[in-house]
Amino acid sequence: MIEISELRRIYRMGDVEVKALDGVTIDIIKGEFLGIMGASGSGKTTLLHLLGLLDDPTTGRIVIEGTDLCNLTDYEKTMFRLYKFGYVFQDYALVPDLTVMENVSLPAMLRKDRDDQKILDDSHDILKKIGLFDRRDHLPRELSGGQQQRVSIARAMVNKPDILFADEPCANLDSENSRMVLDLFREINEEMKQTIVMVSHEPWHQEYFHRIVKLGDGKVISDEINGHGK
Ligand SMILES: Nc1ncnc2c1ncn2[C@@H]1O[C@H](COP(=O)(O)OP(=O)(O)OP(=O)(O)O)[C@@H](O)[C@H]1O
Ligand SMILES: [Mg+2]
């Protein structure tokens, strides 16, 4: 589904060069729950940003279902992000002055092919799925961290993206809330057949992943099907 070949991202600061990614080649398969792991500074976030079209590679190619992302115009990239991708960040990134319902509806409202009734129905459906329908008129600050992260997952899912990207979504959560978030990802993956690419450095998260790509110094050091995962 996504073919990533020889991806490099070099940051240049004055005379100093940092090879954040140094020739990464992987294929992401439709429907898989892929974990990207590795030590701090190994290039996980950089890889996710390149895949999610939030940053451009220095060299290398990303091809999604036949489309070479390097050849897209800025407008086409924006459309790709809006129509095909969903994002979940470590700090939830909810809009503080909007209600839960408004936050979740936001990506659907940006699309031209959704009428008001569809936006309402889709937002309600996904809020029910994450178990926060009854909190839809609350502001983000009135929710716990785990609940806020579930809202941000609902927001990422409202457009039913081809791929859901999550960068350390449990980093600010205790283990109980982390489990709720991971269980929700698993449910979305199994029931909605959603492809998920998630970055984590917590060893116990591995049990959730179908496959684990480990990065070290910007390179793939292992790429294995997870025998213990589902
Ligand atoms: N904007 C930037 N400018 C310069 N160097 C950067 C920039 N972003 C990342 N780097 C460097 O690139 C390397 C990879 O960073 P990246 O954020 O991808 O690591 P990571 O695996 O996500 O780490 P963490 O687990 O701490 O989030 C690091 O050496 C980092 O210092
Ligand atoms: Mg990171």
CATH superfamily: P-loop containing nucleotide triphosphate hydrolases
Radius of gyration computed on alpha carbons: 18 Å
Please give the number of β-strands: 10
CATH topology: Rossmann fold
Could you say which small molecules are bound to this protein?
Answer: adenosine-5'-triphosphate, magnesium ion
How many domains make up the coordinates?
1
The helix/strand order is EEEHEEHEHHHEHEEE
Description:
The protein has 230 residues and is an alpha/beta fold. The chain has a single domain (2-225), classed as Rossmann fold. 32% of the residues lie in helices and 29% in strands. The chain is built from six helices and ten strands. It has helices at residues 44-51, 74-84, 100-109, 116-129, 145-157, 175-191; strands at 2-13, 16-28, 33-38, 59-64, 67-68, 85-88, 163-167, 195-199, 211-216, 219-225. Strands 6-7-8-3-9-10 form a six-stranded mixed beta sheet, with helices on both faces. α5 (145-157) runs parallel beside α6 (175-191). The chain is globular, with a radius of gyration of 18 Å. The two termini are 20 Å apart. The model has no long low-confidence stretch (mean pLDDT 94). It binds adenosine-5'-triphosphate and magnesium ion.
What descriptive keywords fit this protein?
binds magnesium ion; 230 residues; 10 strands; 6-stranded mixed β-sheet; alpha/beta; binds adenosine-5'-triphosphate; 6 helices
Annotate the secondary structure layout.
Elements: E1 2-13, E2 16-28, E3 33-38, H1 44-51, E4 59-64, E5 67-68, H2 74-84, E6 85-88, H3 100-109, H4 116-129, H5 145-157, E7 163-167, H6 175-191, E8 195-199, E9 211-216, E10 219-225
Helix pairs in contact: 3-4, 3-5, 4-5, 5-6
